[in-house]
């Protein structure tokens, strides 16, 4: 099953040739946790503050089934 992953701001640097309009399309077999997905695309989990799956916040152990839109966001700093 396929799913699409979108990365925000600094996380984009971990995926070579990342296209912010298209994201990254991946093929998964069976269920995969978000943590396993992060390892597969080489984005360190400790750099991610928020995970959204189909517009809803989910934990790193959420089981992806395919067909989802996953968005990963780093912590936001400010003054």
Give a short overview.
With 79 residues, the protein is mainly beta. It is built from 1 helix and 7 strands, in the order βββαββββ.
Describe the structure.
- With 79 residues, the protein is mainly beta.
- The protein has a single domain (2-73), classed as Ubiquitin-like (UB roll), CATH 3.10.20.30.
- 10% of the residues lie in helices and 32% in strands.
- It is built from one helix and seven strands.
- The protein has one helix at residues 34-41; strands at residues 2-7, 24-27, 32-33, 50-53, 56-57, 63-64, 69-73.
- A five-stranded mixed beta sheet has the order 2-1-7-4-5, with no helix packed on it. A two-stranded antiparallel ribbon has the order 3-6.
- The mean pLDDT is 93.
Name a few traits of the molecule.
79 residues; Ubiquitin-like (UB roll); five-stranded mixed sheet; two-stranded antiparallel sheet; 1 helix; 7 strands
Using DSSP, what is the number of strands? 7
Annotated CATH architecture = Roll
Q: What separation lies between the terminal Cα atoms?
A: 42 Å
By CATH reckoning, the class would read Alpha Beta
**What is the string of SSEs from the N terminus onward?**
EEEHEEEE
Low-pLDDT segments: none
Helical content, roughly?
A: 10-25%
Q: What is the radius of gyration?
A: 12 Å
Task: Indicate how many domains the architecture comprises.
Answer: 1
């Amino acid at each position: 099953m396929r799913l699409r992953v979108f990365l925000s701001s600094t996380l984009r640097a971990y995926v070579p040739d990342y296209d912010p309009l298209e994201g990254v399309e991946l093929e998964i077999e069976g269920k995969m946790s978000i943590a396993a997905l992060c390892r597969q695309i080489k984005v360190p989990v400790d750099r991610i503050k928020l995970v959204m799956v189909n517009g809803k916040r989910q934990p790193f152990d959420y089981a992806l089934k395919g067909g989802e839109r996953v968005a990963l966001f780093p912590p936001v700093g400010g003054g």
